[in-house]
Amino acid sequence: MPRFAVNLSMLYPEHDFLDRFTAAAVDGFEAVEYLFPYAYEPAVIAARLADHGLRQVLFNAPPGDWDAGERGVACLPGREDDFRRGIDDALRFADALACPRIHVMAGLAPDGADRALLQATYASNLAWAAQAAGGRDVLIEPINTRDIPRFFLNRQDEAHRIVQAVGAANLKVQMDLYHCQIVEGDVAMKLREYLPTGRVGHLQIAGVPQRHEPDLGELNYGYLLDVIDEVSAACGWDGWVGCEYRPRLGTQVGGTTTGLGWMRAAKAPRA
Question: Which of 31, 127, 159, 267 makes an SS bond possible with 5, Cβ 3.0 to 4.6 Å?
C-alpha cells in the first residue's frame, strides 16, 4: 500500500491551520505536506510535528507575490535574485522541519515571452537550487492550465526532459495524477513509464474533474494505487503519495474525516 501524506493546505479546512496537524494524526496520517509554511516560525510547526509524531515530507518554495497572482518565479528572466532568496528561505524551513523535499513552482509565462529564454532561465535556476539544496530533493511539477492559466510547465515528458537536461541527481518530478489526467491522460502507463526512472520524487492524487476525494470522478484510484504498489515493488520506488484535494463537504465539521473512506479501504487487509 502506498504511503499517504495529507496536504494541510487543502484538507481539514474546518480547522485553523495549526490545528490541522492534530486532526490529521487522529485520522491516522503519518506525514504532512502543504503549500507554504512561511506565515509561522519554523519552531512552531516543528513542535506540531513532534507533538503528533508526524513527518514533514514536502512544501513549496516561496512563489513570489502569491496574492498578486504570481505562481513561482523560476522561469522569469530578471527575477533570479528573488528566486535565490526564496530558495534560501525554503532551505531554512526545511532544515528546521527535517523536510527532504522542496517543490519549486515554475511560474506563469508572460504573454508574448520568448519561450526559449524562459526555458533557459528555468533550467539555470533549477541547477542553482539543486546545488544549494545539498542532500534535499528539489521538485518540479507539471500543472494544468485550466487551474493555473499560462503556467509554464504542463506535461510529464517535458518535466522529465528538463530534469535530464539539468543533470542534477536531486532534481526530480512531482507527479500529480490530477494534473496529469487533465492535460494528457493515460495515467497508469505514465506511472509504469516514469516511476522506474528514479526521477519521480513525489506523487499527488485528487479526483478529476472537481479535485475532490480520489474516489469521486473519472479516475479509478483503486486500480491506480494497485499500479503504484506493483511498480514500486518492482523498481524500489519508496516515495509518498500526497492527498491534495478539496474535501467534498468543505468546511463542514468532520467533513474531511467523513471523506476518508477511500483511504480506509486502501489500508484494509486484502482477502
Answer: 31
